[in-house]
């Protein structure tokens, strides 16, 4: 088939970039190489005794960046530099060198970005009480870590800090777990949308921007969008996160879609034969008596006590989701799900977040049948809110296939593998670690069990 030169197809790579600076999260310091971020048998830096590398090559490649911090990491021990301070220190050291301050990240043959081109949102950060408190703390740490002679003046420091806050990428492993932070120059050209047409994925520290929808050629970067945030949040949460983190009010197609906004907070029709969502987002807080709330399809009336129960369960769920932000407890998730049954529509975002927490917790506890039950219920919601092609959707399907292989249900595993492959080919490509080291072994094992090899 002849390739359409006027179209960029889903799966095509739009941009590949190495980090201007990158910092491995300190909680993975003894598990992953400080240079390539890969999990491996590690060797400690003999000088600072703080960072670890998987081999001499990585240590040699890292030295250009590490040499400016090595002696200081050793000097301050047993204290540990916070991740944000370490990233700031790397930026300051690099920008103090001529080569670093002039480094260019190309997003076309002739167009590039330098660190000074990145938006700092200086006035916004200056007015942001939380960030200014964090900045003051960082300045004190950096003054001790690097010394006052190395630090730029306060105005330049705040500009560097603002650029880090607004332009930093969470570097993720193949499972979409954040393992570090990086500043990438060229990719900062790309704006946000909650309905993105491109996705950022990582291979070690290398970022790739890949199309997930058809785009017009030649590429217009003003029409390329990735998501800066987790899309599995309701409209108000997404807009608030974007406003507080990136200082803009998102008005993308999803944020202005009233029907989706309503679906994310919807009740389930009380008629057990119906299953339609009932939109309740226009009901004001404190208004427990609703006279005219009914199903638009079957016209079933929602009783006042049913709506009151829905609100109580919603508040109960919200409280527990917040307390389980870092660690999910399966018994708490099960309790929330029991309370939600018959009240929350399957596309209600609180219900989906509870399901996701229960699913992740069940996996951690090796309760694989429970994980399968909850994971399968997540599929429609992930497909709806992440879209047809998204790494998180692909990983859900792949993990379900992995569990099915483990419990030796190879026939069903083959179905999920087929679906995940379609997505991974678009979001990651066949050369990515996720495809080669996670997908292919499962595929071969499944095919062998089914007698197809």
Automatic annotation (TrEMBL):
Gene3D superfamilies, A to Z: 1.10.220.160, 1.25.40.970, 6.10.140.2220, SET domain (2.170.270.10), Tetratricopeptide repeat domain (1.25.40.10)
UniProt keyword list: Metal-binding, Zinc, Zinc-finger
PROSITE patterns: ZF_MYND_1 (PS01360), ZF_MYND_2 (PS50865)
Signal peptide residues on this chain, from the entry's feature table: none
Keyword Heme among UniProt keywords: no
A GO term for molecular function: zinc ion binding
Organism the protein comes from: Laodelphax striatellus
UniProt domain MYND-type: residue ranges: 33-70
A single GO cellular-component term on record: nucleus
Name of this chain's protein: MYND-type domain-containing protein
Alphabetized InterPro entries for the sequence: H3K4_H4K5_MeTrfase, SET_dom_sf, TPR-like_helical_dom_sf, Znf_MYND
